[in-house]
Design brief:
Structural class: alpha+beta
Strand content: 15-25%
Number of strands: 18
Distance between the termini: 18 Å
Oligomer: single chain
Length: 449
């Protein structure tokens, strides 16, 4: 049931994005009186699931859900149908249109993708507001994992800015730090700026800690006793752990670190109970856990709920679109960094489906988290816009590049060059697709997905 809901969300999101992207090409093509032969949701090699011809255009649904396309007459596209191009150009063909019209047609898809993301983010800000973990409320600073320490952080640091820009939201900051170069923190009352150690970034990605290597620092107050061993230890709900084996551990991250150092051992735990000190002997399991739940009230104190009026939601939607786009571009820095080797963590459609967000109620019943769904759709819309603008033949960016060349030089790129470039681009994209799918399948069999 869960995988069915996740798959439904993925297909619905992709369908919305593909249809609107292709409409971005279709509508200006029709406006400029260019013949559109096909309009397809998903690809249709060998056969289609459904099709109907209306006027001069065949509308259909393919069986391969990796995108979609519009086939515009007189254009070298991924279909590699060049027979028509051997004849003299007709006035209704793409190649017969002025360069500026062709440029508008090719940019239509990415333009729609960006404006769709802007619209979705504006609506989410207006109707749902934004809930985030506020770094400015981290009165005790941050707690970091060993990988976080390797990046250059210390427990108790208060993050001020990243690459010179103020850091306010943990959800954004934790990613921006991985993609950034320098971080400024308040450490022992002094501002300290240090370069982000890329070996630490590689370790964070390897450990899949992209959102966990930094946490708010809060006291370790026991909220529940989850195991028979913890119940028999003498620990009680409301106890605040302040030291382990004589070592001061006033914060959760220090308790967690100390327990990890004492896996499978018995330790003396100093707690404050009803304002008085107590010493308890307890066993640490092989995973470095006591089997206790932690009071989450301290975490609630660092959460900010921000609401937006209609007038505020529109510029905020634009800001969120730019933030998402910037983050997508920055990811290429770590993807091809020789130390970080971020390409090893790239996921394809299978990984995306597995990580689609769902809601689960107290009875374990699963439903769609629509706010998360639309947030994913907006992010993915920006991602598609960025990918399509990469100047690779086979993508919109390749066509845009050749058209801009024509507008600057004053003469079109030779037809044979276009055909060969398109062929190379299609082969490259198919190879990339196989590589990504192969990576997903390998991770499944290796138990990493």
């Amino acid at each position: 049931m869960e995988i069915a809901i996740k798959l439904f969300q993925f297909i619905l999101s992709i369908s919305i994005l593909v249809i609107l992207h292709e409409l971005g090409h279709f509508l200006p093509a029709k406006y400029f009186k260019t013949k559109v032969e096909k309009f397809y949701l998903f690809f249709d090699p060998w056969f289609s699931l459904a099709k109907k011809k209306i006027g001069e255009t065949e509308y259909g649904i393919g069986w391969l859900p990796f995108g979609g396309y519009v086939k515009i007459a007189g254009m070298v596209d991924e279909s590699m149908d060049t027979e028509q191009l051997k004849q003299p150009a007709q006035p209704w063909e793409f190649r017969a249109k002025p360069a500026w019209q062709r440029l508008i047609i090719m940019l239509g898809g990415v333009t729609v993708n960006f404006f769709l993301a802007w619209l979705i983010y504006s609506c989410l800000s207006l109707f749902n507001g934004e809930t985030y973990t506020d770094l400015t409320k981290f009165n005790n600073g941050i707690g970091v994992t060993e990988a976080g320490k390797k990046m250059g952080f210390q427990n108790g640091d208060k993050i001020i800015n990243i690459d010179g820009k103020p850091a306010e939201r943990l959800e954004n900051a934790s990613i921006n730090i991985l993609l950034g170069d320098n971080v400024t923190v308040l450490r022992n009352g002094k501002e300290v700026t240090f370069p982000v150690n890329k070996d630490g970034v590689a370790e964070v990605l390897k450990q899949k800690e992209a959102k966990l290597y930094i946490t708010p620092r809060f006291p370790m107050i026991i909220d529940s006793l989850a195991t028979p061993a913890s119940q028999a230890s003498g620990l009680k709900k409301g106890d605040q752990i302040v030291a382990i084996n004589g070592k001061q551990t006033p914060y959760f991250d220090e308790v967690s670190s100390s327990l990890s150092e004492n896996k499978g051992k018995t330790v003396n735990i100093e707690v404050v109970r009803n304002g008085k000190p107590e010493t308890i002997t307890a066993s640490v399991d092989k995973n470095g856990k006591l089997g206790v739940g932690v009071d989450q009230k301290a975490l609630a104190n660092v959460i900010t709920d921000k609401k937006y009026s209609f007038g505020e939601s529109i510029p905020r939607g634009f800001e969120r679109s730019i933030e998402s786009l910037t983050m997508q571009v920055k990811q290429f820095k770590i993807m091809f960094n020789s130390k970080i080797q971020g390409y090893k963590n790239v996921g394809g459609p299978i990984a995306i489906v597995k990580n689609m967000p769902v809601d689960r109620n107290a009875n374990g019943e699963i439903s769609i988290n629509w706010a998360a769904f639309w947030g994913f759709t907006a992010m993915f819309s920006v991602w598609l816009a960025f990918l399509n603008l990469i100047p690779i033949p086979g993508l919109d960016g390749g066509h845009v590049l050749f058209t801009l060349y024509e507008m600057i030089v004053g003469k079109p790129v030779p037809q044979k060059v276009l055909e060969n470039a398109q062929m190379i681009g299609v082969i490259f994209l198919l190879g990339l697709m196989l590589l990504i799918f192969g990576s997903d399948i390998f991770k499944i069999f290796a138990g990493k997905l």
